[in-house]
Amino acid sequence: MEDEAVLSSSGEYTSFSFHGHTIRFKTSLKLERYTKVLEWNNGYIVVMAKYENHEEEEEYIDLIPILENLYFDPDEFLSPIKKVRIDYES
Predict the structure, then answer these.
(1) Do strands 83-86 and 4-10 pair parallel, antiparallel, or not at all (unpaired)?
(2) How far apart are CA 49 and CA 9, in angstroms?
(3) DSSP H helices in the chain
(4) Which of 51, 71, 67 has the alpha carbon at shortest distance from 59?
(5) Cα(88)–Cα(65) distance, rounded to whole angstroms?
(6) Using only C-alpha atoms, what is the Rg of the chain?
(7) pLDDT by residue for the chain (90 residues), tens digit each?
(8) pTM here?
(9) 4-14: b or e for each residue (b if 16 or more CB lie within 10 Å)?
(10) Are 18 and 8 spatial neighbours (Cβ–Cβ below 8 Å)?
């Protein structure tokens, strides 16, 4: 979908992909996987995450400072995104 971004993780990195760009950032080595997106709010993501030896818990990801550190314009990059889905198959 043109207005949908994808969130996933592998090892110690989280990936956020949209329109041919994949932004990777470090996360906990204990993160097994993201399980559900609860909320998308223009750069702020609330997700359920499964960590090693723990029950699922709510996690918060703020993409704006990450994008700014990578010299992306957060408003320009994030404004077309209407939905975020988790995908470990791609």
Answers:
(1) parallel
(2) 10
(3) 63-69, 74-78
(4) 51
(5) 25
(6) 13
(7) 689 999 999 999 999 999 999 999 999 999 999 999 999 999 999 999 999 999 999 999 999 999 999 999 999 999 999 999 999 985
(8) 0.91
(9) ebbbbbeeeeb
(10) no
